[in-house]
């Protein structure tokens, strides 16, 4: 049986009580560059999102889980997106909300838990991540977890400072029968 619990964090489904956390995170302009957000989200829109968060990954082609610490506090979100069951692949992304919680292994543990889930339960063949070239912490994190750099999308993301390159990483599940 798959365990979504690690030593420092565990992954769980979104709950109605996550509204305030989601509202703060989605409206944090410091992460809009990596999330592709262009405008603030209202609590009403996020409430509707939470009401539909139970929908099946095969139907909505994405899965968002909360990253929680040992004290049962939600400290971030981890996503599978662009879920493609025919080609057995999906994108993966993570955000740890508070900078004080970063660089302590919680992101690595959460990504490993999600990889294990994607490869064993969803039977995916590969995961990929898109990371801005100046996000050295994320680049290091994904490389440490066995994701390989496979290409660069030149001037892919438009920011207030100009265009940035996005690096694509891929992890292929090699323990298949």
UniProtKB/TrEMBL annotation:
Keywords: Acyltransferase, Transferase
Domain N-acetyltransferase intervals: 9-170
UniProt GO MF annotations: acyltransferase activity
Annotated EC: 2.3.-.-
Enzyme's top EC category: transferase
InterPro entries: Acyl_CoA_acyltransferase, GNAT_dom
Protein name (record): GNAT family N-acetyltransferase
């Amino acid at each position: 049986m798959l365990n979504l619990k690690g030593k420092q964090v565990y992954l769980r489904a979104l709950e109605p009580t996550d509204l305030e956390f989601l509202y703060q995170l989605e409206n944090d302009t410091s992460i809009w560059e990596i999330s592709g957000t262009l405008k603030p989200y209202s609590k009403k829109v996020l409430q509707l999102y939470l009401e539909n968060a139970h929908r099946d990954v095969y139907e909505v082609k994405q899965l968002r889980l909360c990253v929680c610490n040992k004290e049962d506090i939600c400290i971030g979100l981890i996503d599978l997106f662009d879920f493609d069951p025919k080609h057995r692949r999906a994108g993966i992304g993570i955000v740890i909300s508070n900078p004080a919680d970063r660089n302590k292994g919680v992101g690595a543990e959460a990504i490993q838990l999600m990889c294990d889930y994607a490869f064993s339960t969803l039977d995916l063949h590969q995961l990929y991540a898109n990371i801005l070239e100046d996000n050295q912490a994320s680049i290091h994190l994904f490389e440490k977890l066995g994701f390989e750099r496979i290409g660069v999308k030149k001037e892919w993301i438009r920011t207030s400072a100009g265009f940035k390159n996005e690096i694509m990483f891929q992890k292929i599940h090699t323990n298949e029968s």
